[in-house]
Amino acid sequence: MKKILVSACLMGYECRYKGDGCKCEKVLELSKDNIVIPVCPEQLGGLSTPRLPAEIADGKVIAQNGIDVTAEYNLGADFAVEIAKANKVDYCVLKANSPSCGKGVIYDGTFSGAKTNGNGIAAQKLINAGFTVKTENEI
Ligand code: SF4
Questions:
Q1: I need a surface site. Which of 17, 66, 87, 109 has the fewest CB within 10 A?
Q2: Mean pLDDT of 3-9
């Protein structure tokens, strides 16, 4: 049995910016034989649900109305790292493409649906802290 930090939206929690979830059967399957710890870094950072979408551009996280929400994203990411450390998780499964949780590929900051190479803020901080991060597409 492993301890796994997961993006809460993958468990079906309705914490996404639109106010919905994105339940992933593979993640639910993991929860049967392992201890999963759901976190939503954007909510942990104090952002409301629903909220405006945001994307990373030039190292900052900018909401669709132009407001800089980098501080909130950093705060939530720091909480996610603290939760991962406190629970000594074995690895993390985070939502692909998200500006918080995405790993390897994220939206490119133009709100056009285009993607670019990079990690979300929480994914990057978890990697920097030494945790293995996978997306739901890699399990
Ligand atoms: Fe899901 Fe992560 Fe976005 Fe929260 S911050 S809704 S957990 S992808």
A1: 66
A2: 98
